[in-house]
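Supplementary notes (optional reading)

For those who missed the lab, this is the record we used. Protein: Deoxyribose-phosphate aldolase. Length: 325 residues.
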Amino acid sequence: MRAGHVGGARHEEGGDAPTGAPVAYERLRSPHRRVDVADLVRTRTHHPEAIAEAAARRARRPLVDDSGRLMIIAADHPARGALAVGDRKFAMAGRADLLDRLCLALSRPGVDGVLATADILDDLLLLGALDGKVVIGSMNRGGLAGASFELDDRFTGHRPRDIERLGFDAGKLLLRIDYDDPGSLRTLEATARVIDEMAERRLPVFVEPFLCRRRDDGTLRNDLSAEAVTKSIAIASGLGGSSAYTWLKVPVTDNPDDMARVMETSTLPSVLLGGDVGEDQERAYEKWRGALQLPTVQGLVVGRSLLYPADGDVAAAVDTAVGLL
């Protein structure tokens, strides 16, 4: 990526950029390189239109390129109030640090793009980090982590028309189903309608389904048994009036050996999600490696475990994940 800062720079093609126009973010080679928050705030304050302008001139690419595989970095957790990574309660709360990590991850060979909410994608547009990348807007963040209404997961993020207007490449939504919580039915219905709206626009939508249940202390637990993941895939695959643009974003089952049978449930293209893998990064890589051999699995969408690896080496974690593809 090209070197530069947010305001008062020059375009790659030559000529002066308009004041406040975004330019590309330098590939991070040094731990001393930091996102300039003051520059971002200055542009947001005086030139908010720079975000839409950056989106309009962003160089685009196909969702899946000639490699036939997809490697996406996920960073939509903060908008749901999910800021923890392992035992670090507010690891994702430092926005400049998160943006630094994202820019580094996006600069690594083989990384196709990013999944995030509008605030983060707007910052990355201003930093020029999204040229030639797949951009996936996160759509439903209303089910705040730990809330009593967590399973009534309303669409408070990108709308289909926002993704179309900004020239983004796809959307993503979370679908958690608890048979004992009526909020799941409202989320199911809303999900089906969004799938319809995305299909009308010929825009892919990644659906991340789980069966889940509440523990005695009220917290939610996703069920990663083969039976639960199979059911969640079957339910998600049948939503909406067309599945032509639906992708699935699925977890690896508790027993990775079950994945071959589980993934026979649908012919929809799928990607594996990462989740918070804790200290055992190598075990996560092994689980992904096996599942990536299955015919419907097209790639990885991983966030915290690559952006905040236990050893702190973001580049190495990302490169290892890319190598699995």
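If you only remember one thing from this example: The chain is about 35% helix and 15% strand.
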